[in-house]
Amino acid sequence: MSVPHILCALVNVLLNKTHGLTVSALHTLVPRELAMLLCCRSGAGTVMAAAGASPPRPCALPSSRLVAGRRRWQCSAAMDEAEVGVKKTATVQSKAGDALEVCRVVNGMWQVSGASWGRAAPAKAVDAMLAYADGGLATFDMADIYGPAEDLYGMFINRVRRERPAEMLEEVKGLTKWVPPPVKMTRSYVEENINRSRKRMDVAALDMLQFHWWDYSNPGYLDALKHITDLKEEGKIKTVALTNFDTERLQIILENGIPIVSNQVQHSIVDMRPQKKMAELCQLTGVKLITYGTVMGGLLSEKFLDTNVSIPFAGPPLNTPSLQKYKRMVDAWGGWSLFQALLQTLKKVSLKHGVPISTVAVRYILNQTSVAGSMVGVRLGLSEHIRDTNAILSLELDEEDMGSIAEASSRGRNLMDVIGDCGDEYRA
Questions:
Q1: E-strand spans in 190-314?
Q2: Is the pTM of this model over 0.85?
Q3: Res 86: pLDDT
Q4: What is the CA 28 to chain-centroid distance, rounded?
């Protein structure tokens, strides 16, 4: 008998022996991943049932793409429920009551905007988006300026509508940005651009619109935000947010009655500027932070540990715009030698928990004041890190871990003194 036939026979025996058992019970007999598979194949209850909730429908053998998608999503949902104590989502909310629940780790889609990161065919990229959503990572961040990002989301959301259960459609969130030139912000101009994003993303209302403004000396950003708020009241936008605004302007915007739920800012173990002034205002007003640059384009990883990128061809190439950008941040913070000491500290913590350095780096920022979520860039259709990303959500750093990382971070310069407040790097 061939190996595949032996495995099939074993599965059939287990299905007959384990029908009706919960995941917890099965986990005592077989590895957890196989226990989840068996529950989905046999229609067994899950820990949700043990907790008094209605169990998910049995994951039947796929007879169509819809059934197959339902099976994948339900098995993933059952796995999520089995992670006791794991909080995978956060709610961002304005004082006006607008609210949106997002995954604490957000799939950042900026890498589809340029060939330097590599680009997969659209169908393959959408397949990858479905895989992330099936894996419980169903919040996607994009922008009108990220090449085909909004169009890919539109293709993706249509696949979800056709091939996944309605419950999953409720979990999926699409956060986009509007990055206009500093021209006169008329109602018609603002609405035209918002409608373009709605059409590209194929949604009646944008889950979140994050607004960026290049020039603070031009007060047109207040006009734009007032029109955006009107569009929200008309049902075209669910929540209004900002990206790369500093603390002073955030306060002005809030004082003008704009219902802001979040501000997306650069935030990493190297760049702790959001914790200097921004987080204090956020605590007072309820605005949350969504962070990017949290793994510094990949610099905060084993790949750059014990390397010297200052010597040509001696270390890994800085061959993406993100790597080049965040290498400049390292230089401003304290230089490559000090950065190596930080990586060594992170490596010790990562070995302690059995996770990669990047996982520790993101978890540390998620633990910071007022941070609702952190973005991890996705190279759709080229590579995937669903398992490592989910590990961020289940990782618990203890007081010793947090203290050692904070000490290593504090050895560098205060970037508030070097660069300025959040977003000032775009307005120098």
A1: 206-211, 237-243, 260-266, 288-292
A2: no
A3: 65
A4: 33
